[in-house]
């Protein structure tokens, strides 16, 4: 009897441990190595998918997350990195993006899982390379895998229709007015919640809560980054629907959190540095919207990656002992 | 008299040595540092060019191969690498591609030779860099030089006509049916022989023979990769003419051989790893077909390079002592 | 009284030192760490902007240069590099390009200054990385920042009109004839002066003078590179207006100077090596003209960067103790 209990306890511990790793993977999308943050982000993501009536996106994302984590484990990847969720977040984002753009269905789901597996393999090099170079991979595996898989789908008879209609008009035309406070706030909250592919006020609050439970600074930089991004985007005269839907602001938000919380000692100079990076991310988002329009491909989080790489290599000038955003 | 004999012997030895280096260069296109493999590949390539009535392609390729090897020698490149044919294979591929797409004529031939010279210079860095990073250059010099030279030719009054007609319709429309076993086999064999720019059953058999004389495993992975690539491509619903002509499958075949034979100890996990890479190469080939269509540029072996880089950096997780595919 | 004098002397010394750093920054555009070279280049640039009636381009360039230098100083960048002007030249080029393509006006000026600041941050990594890799950054920060900022401007309501008209017809149609010696010489001199964004014979002479005061070899390679580039471009049959305006030749000139003067001991082999690089830059310029036309983006100095990177990594084979072109 006691052996049966011991066996059950062991199974139960394994399940808990696996859930913990995957929740940390969700948390790492916004740099939080914390299962509670991951659970709150998961609620944000679930509510976003449910309220937009695209539950298959949440299912695709979670399946790819689990597949990515399992792939890294089975390839004997560095155990600390696996447990910290470092192999999972790219899988989650890849699964969300592929099912979002390719629609529901078994083929799209299997394709998303395959994408998650490849994203984990693509992460093996950067995680090791992180050590000597100290430049984190950020969402590079997500970007490369999702772009390649979306482009490829144009040549697959099963996908081509779904894809062209979902990417071509990337935003729902919203009637928005930058001078109306409601539209401005919508832009700010959607810039937060679009990190998980659907703009939504409740999801934004859950996201902020998820950040705050692990790091009040991260929540502050996220909120500040969203306000700055929306303000600057309106000043530049970017199309206001793009701003209000949050599609212009989610990469600048990620940039603000990454640059603002990567240093051990926050200071006024760090805030300035993060603000400059957020500004550069707004410009880069607009640049990639223009560059990728003819292909057509969504920029995804590429503006964040580009700015974060350029700014990260210079962080040693601000701080003697910088660290990776994802611990 | 004996001095004359000695002199002749020396010249003869030099000629033999030069032929050996260049044959190894041909062999390195499919990772075989072996002059006999090179000779059989050369027969495959020669027969492909002859039967397609494009002998100038074979001549351009060989001229660029010799020019590349001579350039590396005269720049005092690492001697072991030169002798192993590491500076030659990119020159050969560059010469084949440039004369294939720009047609016959002295100008195209000279342009191909210049391309071969630049490809050897471009290879000097990666061959040295290979040591600390352990990520081989694969066909990166071939890709960069050929893309740049083909794009440039659009602005040269001597080439522009030839180019636009040869790239625009990249395939001969073949009436093919995936369910017919003959078309399926054509796809498999053409995926092998397209490595040397012309699909052809006899060339495919010569290529397999060239692999088998140096490594039975390489021949097995090539054949297995071709079958897997053609099967998966049909399942994805890729245009069947692209598959049957071999244009969809040659990069996956290169990927299968590179990932399958780079490990010292073959195992079931290595086979799985190579199969996953082959699958990713099929997807990447379709993606680059879509991405490069508007420019227009042929994807060449870029799908192989992209997948091989992403997968190679993770090989240390499967094998403690990995090696470069090209010894 | 003597304290007042001492204070004035200190201020005067600071002003002189700041002017020295910025003049060296101008000099570094063509690899000369010398304030006199910088002053002569500045005269070339000023005359070019004045005679073409675009004074705002010179003002934008200088403002961005100063902003870039100040940014690097305030971020505690390596002091020797700051004093050598290594953080300034990308800022200058970024400011020139952004005001040239986006026109006069306060918004464009502020945008150019922001670009200069980001270019200095982007340079922090490469300057440090230069040491172990020994591959200089060249104008990579200028390229990335200018391309991103120009692309982004397409989505900004304040810029979009100015941009589309200035990039779309990149050259003034000149009636030129390669066989007329006057047109040939125009091509040669404009290939020199286009480095500072405006073709012009007097500016070309000032540029050569600026090179000669620091390095006669640099002046020789610049002149030789321009003659070779114009000759080869005509032989390839490139549109003659592109050649005569200097737009085809300025990247080959930079390549000739960089490859020709980076070695301690000049020799016939170094001349051959530089000539081969110049030839490759002519081809690459034509390739990028074709590749970037549909976006549309100007190639800027990308052909120089691409060729210089590929050729620099191989310089260790020619010279045991290579150095960076920018000391």
Commentary on this structure:
The structure is a homotrimer of 327-residue chains. Chain A is mainly α. Chain A has helices at 2-28, 35-51, 55-74, 79-83, 89-102, 106-133, 140-153, 160-167, 181-193, 201-214, 216-236, 240-244, 250-261, 268-292, 302-312. The radius of gyration of chain A is 19 Å and the shape is globular. Chains in contact: A-B, A-C, B-C. The interface between A and B is medium-sized, with 28 and 25 residues.
**Tally of helical segments of chain A:** 15
* Largest interface, counted by CB within 8 Å of the partner chain's CB: A-B, 28 and 25 residues
Question: Sheet with the most strands of chain A?
Answer: none
Rg for CA atoms of chain A: 19 Å
Helix content of chain A: over 70%
> What is the multimeric organization of the chains shown?
homotrimer
> What's the rounded overall pLDDT mean of chain A?
85
Got a strand count of chain A?
A: 0
Unreliable segments of 5+ consecutive residues of chain A:
130-134, 168-175
Shape of chain A: globular
Strand coverage percent of chain A: under 5%
SSE order of chain A, as H and E?
Answer: HHHHHHHHHHHHHHH
Distance between the termini of chain A: 42 Å
Going by helix content, strand content and strand pairing, the class of chain A is mainly alpha
């Amino acid at each position: 009897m006691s052996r049966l209990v011991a066996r059950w306890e062991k199974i139960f511990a394994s399940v808990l441990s696996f859930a913990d790793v995957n929740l940390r993977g969700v948390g790492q999308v916004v740099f939080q190595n914390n299962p509670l943050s991951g659970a709150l982000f998961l609620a944000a993501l679930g509510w976003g998918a449910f309220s937009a009536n695209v539950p298959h996106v949440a299912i695709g994302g979670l399946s790819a997350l689990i597949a990515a984590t399992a792939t890294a484990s089975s390839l004997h990847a560095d155990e600390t990195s696996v447990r910290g969720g470092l192999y999972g977040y790219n899988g989650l984002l890849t699964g969300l993006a592929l099912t979002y753009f390719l629609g529901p269905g078994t083929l799209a789901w299997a394709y998303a899982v395959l994408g998650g597996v490849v994203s984990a393999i693509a992460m093996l090099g950067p995680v090791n390379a992180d050590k000597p170079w100290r430049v984190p991979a950020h969402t590079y595996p997500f970007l490369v895998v999702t772009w390649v898989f979306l482009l490829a789908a144009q040549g697959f008879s099963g996908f081509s229709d779904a894809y062209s209609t979902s990417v071509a008009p990337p935003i729902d035309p919203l009637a928005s007015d930058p001078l109306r406070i409601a539209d401005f706030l919508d832009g700010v909250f959607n810039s937060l919640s679009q990190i998980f592919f659907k703009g939504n006020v409740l999801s934004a609050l859950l996201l902020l809560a998820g950040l705050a439970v692990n790091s009040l600074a991260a929540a502050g930089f996220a909120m500040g980054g969203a306000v700055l991004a929306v303000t600057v985007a309106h000043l530049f005269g970017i199309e206001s629907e793009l701003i209000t839907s949050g599609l212009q602001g989610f990469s600048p938000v990620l940039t603000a959190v990454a640059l603002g919380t990567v240093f051990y000692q926050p200071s006024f100079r760090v805030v300035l540095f993060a603000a400059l990076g957020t500004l550069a991310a707004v410009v880069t988002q607009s640049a990639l919207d223009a560059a990728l329009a003819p292909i057509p491909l969504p920029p995804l989080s590429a503006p964040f990656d580009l700015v974060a790489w350029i700014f990260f290599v210079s962080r040693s000038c601000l701080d003697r002992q910088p660290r990776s955003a994802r611990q």
